[in-house]
Structures
1.
Amino acid sequence: MKQRIITGILFGIVVILLLFLNGWTRLTLIALIPLLSSIEYLKMTKGNILQYILILLTTCGIYFLGAFANADLLLILAFCFINSILIINLFVKRPFISHQILSGLIGGIYIVGPFIFALSKNIHFNNKEILISSVLLIWVADSSAYFVGSQIGKRKLFEKISPKKTWEGFFGAGMCTLIAAYILGSIWNLYDLQFWVWFGLIVWILGALGDLIASHVKRLNNTKDSGSILPGHGGFYDRFDALIFILPFILLLLQINQAI
């Protein structure tokens, strides 16, 4: 437990520093998350050379479309569609995510794609407030869900995949996340209240689903943690599973807000 606390504090300080310093440090973080997470994902799913090639080709294709083609909304909707299928995958008896080729494609589109697209649009320079708020709200949601769930949690949220999560923790996280989103919106003063309400809902609800999907992948592959790079916390995929999942929906929210 002591090692977990120390690692968590040090890791949190590093992430906050990378986010706050400048665009180049944010670039470093945004590049490391999909790179290390996809490697851990492939190791968990016993990836072969074909899967690595599929992820590489998917990454190159997404960067090309994001940087040079007028297909922003289509790409974002494609990311959201893949993630929606992953939600359905939680409820089926024979999850297709365990299929080797599909696993490679999913690794490329689900884990790497949104980050590559975000980089092609210079989100690390143009939307630092959104990146910082995403990470902070995810931490608020995780911490409050754990605290509320450990104190009063009785009803299991999704016992077969993540036995420790409860409905009480889920709703406690929702209340705290929406309050924190309102506070951040007041601090940044960039978007209206409706934007921050939607932002908070995305982090709360879809972030929780992203965490369940990561747990599902690990359970299907009989793995407790995605890696050991962070002692007591697992790997990058473990730490950023919620951000990986919600990023396409945040990008969609930004697109909608820009169009209004």
2.
Amino acid sequence: MELREALGQIAEIRQQMARSEVFRGYRAITVGGSGVLAVAAAVCQPYWVASPGSELQRYLCLWVSVAIVSAIMAGGEMWWRARTTDSAMARDMTVLAVEQFFPCVVVGVLLTLCIFFSAPQVAWMLPGLWSLVFGLGLFASYRLMPRQIFWVGLYYVLCGVGCLLWGQGASALSPWQMGISFGGGQLMTAAILYWTLERPDAGQT
């Protein structure tokens, strides 16, 4: 019984330490790649989805595909790093990072399904809602990351508000709503990750 209690206390201490460390599972090149992918999708959208208001399914196929590829890139790298590391702390931090960010992904998926099947007339709100939900996900998990990530979360929230305020009518489902919000936010995140964690002299500043 004493051994079991001791092991439980060690696990709890390890989890507390994980919460106080900086998570290094997100890499600048992967996050930046998802930003470049979003910008490329924004460039291609007018050719693939000429009228997104009447081609909602094609619009969703485009941007859901971008989201899935981005998630596979980030998730695959996190899984690989957690699998190959000898540090139990690193594995705990990976699990914690997923637990903190995953709810925003679930909410984003549910919002998309509800609007697509029940209220397609308000589909113009999707870019703004996606950006707001993603920003909330960053706020939920930014304590594991460099503190500058807070500003990226704020950027997503402001982009979401802007999309909801000005993304109606002729601007509805404009490609650059996603290109600027998601593409810009991911590129900002990549720059912060590189500058604070990955550049050779990052630990000296």
